[in-house]
Write a sequence for this structure.
């Protein structure tokens, strides 16, 4: 009843939750690397793009879906590690501004490589297209992808909480995020911690690639670019310094985007990013530390 | 006997002289043709960006057409020569640099990319210097005075004006018995919007009813799924859109509707030509579009099929390249060999059903983009495209 009044239906709500969930995963990937490396990885979207192209490549060659997904993970993880080794590690001693500019450069480089390699037409990646089909729950049609994306995001976040809270590497990551220098002096192996963070972030990027290609089967060089910008805004909105607020920020911006996209007349929805970014500015003016941070916690533990 | 022999010798000598003379005359004629300066066509094309799928095949086919024209002696004894410059994704600065470079190489005419916004730097560089600017396939009425003012008289496109294309789509929909339509407008470029607006105007004139009107954004926008959900809730005879596969939203739009079990016909403009964007699960069915020519080898014109096989084009837009060459050749001939922008423009504004490889084309003082061309209607069923008819718009509606 309320939904109908708002001009929405259950599908819109489910789409909004699933978009929020996917953005939350991206937010975790970005937030995790920021926590450990103090690096805002603008090239995160291009990792997702690389994974999507891997899925398209497998589809092009007629390989099974499972092989395509494995290739997607392999490509994204290899690329993540290479970027860390070749670019981020040598620049680690430099200021965050230098690192940020480096991620911009990587983003454009990867985009250009995709353009030259795969061409401007884009490649179809329809490996998990069956997830687009609806299931009827209590008389309401909801696309399977909405349910799968939400469940997968919840599972990933739970796994991450367990990793950070219950394992040695998780403890080291949290220590490194709190104070990298002190953690190193106390015996935490910095290289291993960073590699772990980069790998986890890569795994999440690969999952996002699989989820996004279900709804957007055509992979182009700017695939996931706009999503990354929105998620970055969401992370800042939630509170960059802590992982949970950052994740909530990612979810919030995805959910709001999906919900407003469904509620607004479609001839208004093209202005949706403007509304969202205006809201982000407004929130940051009122709460510069982030929407989901609590007083006194802002400068504390970042992971 | 001796007299007869002498006469025979004289006759043979005369014959030889005549033959040598005519051979020399022919060679001299050819030399004269070659000696005349070539007509240089500067072509600023996008080799890497979103317009590359449209610019590349049009340029490749135009080169073949130029070879054919030159093999027949050129235009008024002058050979045609294409010189190219890659605008690298239509970056504005690069496009302008390309235009200046080509003009520096004494280009008589400048060809540009197939979107009016992206073409603007090249068009302005050309018309500011009194040089004719031609786009093979811009599809809006803005390629001309409407966008570029008085100097815009020197700007033309051999694409179909969106009003004409939308009108043809409406006529076709009506002829198929689709009396109601749900509209989905991709707002990302003017051409897409104008096609749907023209469809609406003409469809209503014909007695059709618009039952839904949604918008979305391709090129990275994430609201196409919302348009799908809303359209799915409305029963319509046909869903109408204008968007390109390469712009990203088309496969999402079609897949979105079909996976919801909605098999309503989808009608698209030339933008939706090609098979490169087709997902295999579910296969695309009941999808229709109008286009310049079929690039799938089943066009009604054998000349087009021959060219299509050589170019290996992804869409029927490739034919606009040779069509523009045909139009330019006619214009130069009618302007008595002049390549001055003003002279060519004056002639071209009076084009009425001028024959080109892609059919008869017309321009007017107001419309510098083609109207009245015969469209091919192609249906994709189970991912297989097939020409199912042709159509010419009877009116160009005001939008």
């Amino acid at each position: 009843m309320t939904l109908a009044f708002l001009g929405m239906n259950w599908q819109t709500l489910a789409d909004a939750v699933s978009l929020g969930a996917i953005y939350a995963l991206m937010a975790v990937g970005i937030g995790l690397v920021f926590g450990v490396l103090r690096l805002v990885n603008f090239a995160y979207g291009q990792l997702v793009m690389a994974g999507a192209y891997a899925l398209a490549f497998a589809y092009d060659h007629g390989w099974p879906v499972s092989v395509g997904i494995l290739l997607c993970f392999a490509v994204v993880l290899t690329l993540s590690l290479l970027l860390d080794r070749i670019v981020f590690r040598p620049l680690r001693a430099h200021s965050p501004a230098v690192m940020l500019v480096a991620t911009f450069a990587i983003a454009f480089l990867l985009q250009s490589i995709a353009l030259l390699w795969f061409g401007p037409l884009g490649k179809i990646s329809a490996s998990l297209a069956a997830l687009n089909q609806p299931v009827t729950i209590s008389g309401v049609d909801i696309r399977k992808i909405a349910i799968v994306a939400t469940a997968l995001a919840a599972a990933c976040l739970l796994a991450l909480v367990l990793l950070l809270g219950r394992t040695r590497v998780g403890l080291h990551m949290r220590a490194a995020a709190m104070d990298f220098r002190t953690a190193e002096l106390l015996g935490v192996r910095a290289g291993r911690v960073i590699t772990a963070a980069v790998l986890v972030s890569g795994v999440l990027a690969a999952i996002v690639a699989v989820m996004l290609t279900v709804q957007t089967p055509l992979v182009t060089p700017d695939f996931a670019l706009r999503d990354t910008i929105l998620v970055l805004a969401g992370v800042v909105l939630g509170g960059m310094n802590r992982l949970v607020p950052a994740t909530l920020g990612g979810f919030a911006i995805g959910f709001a985007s999906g919900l407003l996209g469904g509620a607004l007349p479609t001839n208004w929805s093209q202005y949706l990013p403007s509304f969202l970014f205006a809201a982000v500015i407004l929130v940051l003016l009122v709460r510069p530390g982030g929407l989901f941070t609590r007083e006194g916690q802002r400068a504390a533990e970042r992971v | 006997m001796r007299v007869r022999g002498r006469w025979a010798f004289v006759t043979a000598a005369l014959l030889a002289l005549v033959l040598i003379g005519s051979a020399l005359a022919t060679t001299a004629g050819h030399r004269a043709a070659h000696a005349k300066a070539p007509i240089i066509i500067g072509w600023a094309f996008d080799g890497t960006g979103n317009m590359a799928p449209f610019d590349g095949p049009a340029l490749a086919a135009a080169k073949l057409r130029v070879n054919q024209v030159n093999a027949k002696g050129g235009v008024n004894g002058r050979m045609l020569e294409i010189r190219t410059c890659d605008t690298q994704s239509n970056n504005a600065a690069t496009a302008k640099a390309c235009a200046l470079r080509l003009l520096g190489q004494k280009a008589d005419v400048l060809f540009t990319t197939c979107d009016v916004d992206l073409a603007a730097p090249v068009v302005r560089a050309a018309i500011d210097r009194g040089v004719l600017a031609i786009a093979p396939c811009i599809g809006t009425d803005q390629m001309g005075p409407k966008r570029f003012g008085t100097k815009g008289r020197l700007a033309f496109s051999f694409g179909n004006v969106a009003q004409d294309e939308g009108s043809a789509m409406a006529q076709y929909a009506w002829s198929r018995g689709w009396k109601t339509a749900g509209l989905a407008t991709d707002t990302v470029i003017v051409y897409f919007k104008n096609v749907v607006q023209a469809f609406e105007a003409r469809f209503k004139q014909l007695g059709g009813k618009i039952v839904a009107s949604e918008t979305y954004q391709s090129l990275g926008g994430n609201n196409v799924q919302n348009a799908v959900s809303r359209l799915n809730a409305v029963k319509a005879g046909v869903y109408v859109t204008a968007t390109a596969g390469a712009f990203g939203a088309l496969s999402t739009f079609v897949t979105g509707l079909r996976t919801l079990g909605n098999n309503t016909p989808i009608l698209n403009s030339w933008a939706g030509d090609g098979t490169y964007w087709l997902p295999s699960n579910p296969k695309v069915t009941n999808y229709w579009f109008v286009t310049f020519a079929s690039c799938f080898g089943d066009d009604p014109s054998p000349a087009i099929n021959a060219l299509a096989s050589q170019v290996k084009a992804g869409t029927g837009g490739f034919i606009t390249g040779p069509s523009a060459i045909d139009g330019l050749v006619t214009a130069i001939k009618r302007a008595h060999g002049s390549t001055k922008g003003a002279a060519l423009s004056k002639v071209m504004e009076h084009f009425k059903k001028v024959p080109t490889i892609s059919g008869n084309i017309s321009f007017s003082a107001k419309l510098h983009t083609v109207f009245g061309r015969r469209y091919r209607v192609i249906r994709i069923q189970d991912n297989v495209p097939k020409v199912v008819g042709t159509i010419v718009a009877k009116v160009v509606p005001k939008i």
In short: The CA atoms of residues 374 and 392 of chain B lie 5 Å apart.
